[in-house]
Every structure is written in structure tokens, then in C-alpha cells.
Write a structure and sequence with these properties.
Elements: E1 9-14, H1 19-29, E2 35-41, H2 44-53, E3 60-62, H3 69-78, E4 84-87, E5 94-95, H4 97-116, E6 141-142, H5 149-167, E7 172-176, H6 200-214, E8 218-223, E9 226-227, E10 234-239, E11 255-256, H7 257-269, H8 271-275, E12 278-286, H9 297-306
Parallel strand pairs: 1-2, 1-4, 2-3, 4-7, 7-8, 8-12, 9-11
Antiparallel strand pairs: 5-6, 10-12
Helix pairs in contact: 1-7, 3-5, 5-6
The structure holds NADP nicotinamide-adenine-dinucleotide phosphate.
């Protein structure tokens, strides 16, 4: 569908109760002439949340999307009549607050001291383990049973892609993934590694590659660190291959979830105008005085057309049988 089409696109949003998913739902509902919305949720609370946002109860489906054949078949049935799928599901680590707080204080004191002394300690060449000095502190975390990144971010997303393919009505899949996937050693891959999970970005990247290989029209979005400032105040930047991941995390641009949701919705509108069959990194900075924030379809169209590249999966190719997983074996983080 393009911005001028009169036909409505029925969009199915998974992870609809999540912070980004709910914003995607809200923004789609704000365009009732262009979109009809269906969603997947896991709880009665999330069901009520969707009703309160304005999703019609007939379009709310209860599904646990961690890769079972049963849930894939149920999603496939739910997708009948939908032309697009927006995947916003993600494994969510349970962070151990006290150890993370103490570890974070220790890390902050060390990095502040290193900053005062004008030096940042780097691991020895080729060394495995630990978060590097340029990375933030890795929180102590575990996963709910059956909800690891391998289950949710890989098997669950593969099941969604396969359900979309089998539905025969879905013509576009937008996958909200993450920046940092070019680096198999990225610090985020260490989160929850000791707890039998981890490698979150590596599993996400493997799912992205499955989507590309599926033959379905796709858009993969790699946001930088997500934040929640008020909507519509930022200038969005696009890039590929983690070019927006500055070496030190403190210098990195962040990505407002509202702008990420807007980019996803605009990619649906601009499917035939630069919005599809590509994998893109995104981040945003506050608009300067007198500068227009990125909000309109025309602005997003220009942005997509001015940066026509797509991320290369020859970098950190997760389909290779010998693909290197995160740098530290479990127990050594
Ligand atoms: N946080 C960051 O800084 C950051 C940076 C870059 C990229 N990202 C990525 O951006 C995306 C959006 O992040 P977010 O923070 O907005 O998401 P979020 O709030 O953590 O939402 C995750 C959603 O996934 C759903 N979910 C998880 N496991 C599921 C399962 N087994 N079956 C069905 N649904 C399941 C959750 O449902 P429930 O509500 O039922 O739990 C929730 O709706 C994620 O892929 C995230 O990894 C995050």
C-alpha cells in the first residue's frame, strides 16, 4: 500500500502490550482510513489495555509466541485477512535489582575514576570476558522458564514469519529488532548468559536472516537504546551496519519509542517508496530551535530515499554453522 491508496491495510501487531508495540497500535489506530488493527497479547490485563486503546475485541488474540507449533498454527489462523505483520515481541530479562545496583555503583565509580585519570582500561587483545570499558555495566538477569532470547527472539519470531508466509494474505512483515547486531561480542549478548539464556542480539539477528530468506517483503528496524521522551520532537537518522553505534555508549544517540513506532508505521505506508525489503538502523536527536522534527510521511519518505542502503548480513552472519556466539562462556561474565 502507498500513501495514496484508498484500500485499508489490516495490520497484525504482536508484542502489542509492550512499550513500542502499544505505540505502534496507537499510531495505526490514529489512521483509521488507512489501517485496521489486530493484535496478539498474553494476559487479560493486556487484553483490557488494547480495548482501552480502541482495538475491537474481535481483533484481540491471546497467544504465547515462544515458538510452539500450536501457537504458530493459532497465529496463522489469526493472520487470515491481514496484509501486514509488525513483530514487536522480545524476550525480557528479569533484572536482579540489588546485585545490579551494587555492581552498577562499582562500575560507575571505576569508570569515573578512569575518566578522571584520563584512561579507559581495555581488555587485552583477543581476551574473552567482561564488559569492555566502552560498554555500559551488564546487569545481573535471568529469564522466565521458556522465555529466553533463543525461544522468544529466535524460535518465536521464526514461527511468526512462517505463520505469515503460510497465511497467504500477509504481504509485508516489519520486524522491530535492535542495533548492535554486527558485533557478536556486544555487551547486550552477556545479559542473562549465566542464567541459561543470553546472546539476545545474536538470536535477533538470526531471526532477521530467516525473515530475509523467507521471500516475504520485509522491513527490519535496528533502533539504538530506546527512550520515552514526548513524541514528535526528534530528528530521525537512518544508517546501516551499526554506523550509529558510537564506540562509547555515553556518546550514542538514542531512539525514542514513539519515533520508532512512527518509522514502522511509515514503512507500512511507504512499502513501495523505500520502506520495504531493507534492514535499517535508526536513532534520533532532539530537533534544534527552528528545526522541524521528523513527523510527516513526506519527511520519512525523503529520509528513506536519501539513505537507500540496507544492512549487510555478511557481517556477523548467524546462519554460518561456525558462527561465533557471545564472547564469554556462561559463568565467566
Ligand atoms: N530497551 C532498549 O533500549 C532496546 C534497544 C534496542 C532495541 N530494543 C528492542 O526493541 C523492541 C521493543 O522493545 P520494548 O522495550 O518496547 O519492548 P517491551 O516493552 O519489552 O515489549 C516486549 C513485548 O513482547 C511480548 N512478549 C515477550 N515474550 C512473549 C511471548 N513469549 N509471547 C508473546 N509475547 C511476548 C511482551 O508481552 P507481555 O506484555 O505479555 O510480557 C511485550 O508485549 C524489542 O525487540 C527490544 O529488544 C530495545
Amino acid at each position: 500500500m502507498d500513501g495514496n491508496s484508498s484500500a485499508k491495510t489490516k495490520v497484525f501487531v504482536t508484542g502489542a502490550s509492550g512499550k513500542t508495540g502499544a505505540l505502534v497500535v496507537q499510531q495505526l489506530l490514529q489512521l483509521p482510513d488507512k489501517f485496521e488493527v489486530a493484535v496478539a497479547v498474553r494476559s487479560d490485563k493486556a487484553h483490557k489495555y488494547m480495548v482501552d486503546l480502541g482495538v475491537t475485541p474481535d481483533n484481540i488474540f491471546h497467544l504465547d509466541l515462544s515458538g510452539s507449533d500450536e501457537s504458530r498454527a493459532a497465529l496463522q489462523a489469526a493472520l487470515q485477512g491481514c496484509q501486514a505483520l509488525v513483530i514487536c515481541t522480545a524476550a525480557v530479562p528479569e533484572v536482579a535489582l540489588l546485585s545490579t545496583l551494587l555492581g552498577g555503583l562499582w562500575f560507575w565509580a571505576g569508570s569515573t575514576l578512569a575518566g578522571l585519570l584520563g584512561r579507559h582500561q581495555q581488555p587485552p587483545e583477543g581476551a574473552a570476558g567482561g564488559s569492555r570499558a566502552a560498554d555500559p555495566f551488564v546487569p545481573v538477569a535471568k529469564w522466565k522458564a521458556g522465555q529466553t532470547p533463543e525461544k522468544v527472539d529466535y524460535q518465536g519470531q521464526v514461527a511468526q514469519i512462517e505463520a505469515a508466509k503460510a497465511s497467504s494474505s500477509v504481504q509485508h512483515v516489519v520486524l522491530i529488532s535492535s542495533a548492535g547486531g554486527c558485533d557478536p561480542h556486544h555487551f547486550l549478548n552477556h545479559i542473562g548468559k549465566d542464567a541459561g539464556g543470553g546472546d539476545i542480539l545474536n538470536w535477533k539477528r538470526k531471526a532477521e536472516q530467516h525473515l530475509i530468506a523467507s521471500g516475504l517483503p520485509y522491513t527490519i528496524l535496528h533502533p539504538n537504546h530506546l527512550v520515552d521522551p514526548p513524541a514528535g520532537r526528534h530528528v530521525v537518522a537512518l544508517a546501516v551496519d551499526d554506523a550509529l553505534q558510537q564506540p562509547h555508549w555515553r556518546q550514542r544517540l538514542k531512539m525514542p519509542r514513539a519515533d520508532l513506532a512512527a518509522l514502522a508505521v511509515q514503512c507500512l505506508l511507504l512499502k513501495d517508496a523505500g520502506g520495504a525489503n531493507r534492514s535499517i538502523d535508526c536513532a534520533a536527536r532532539p530537533a534544534a530551535a527552528g528545526e522541524a522534527p521528523t513527523t510527516t510521511t513526506e519527511q520519512f519518505k525523503q529520509l528513506l530515499q536519501q539513505m537507500p542502503d540496507s544492512c549487510s548480513y555478511s557481517i556477523n552472519d548467524r546462519t554460518k554453522p561456525d558462527a561465533e556466539w557471545a564472547c564469554t562462556p556462561a559463568g565467566q561474565n
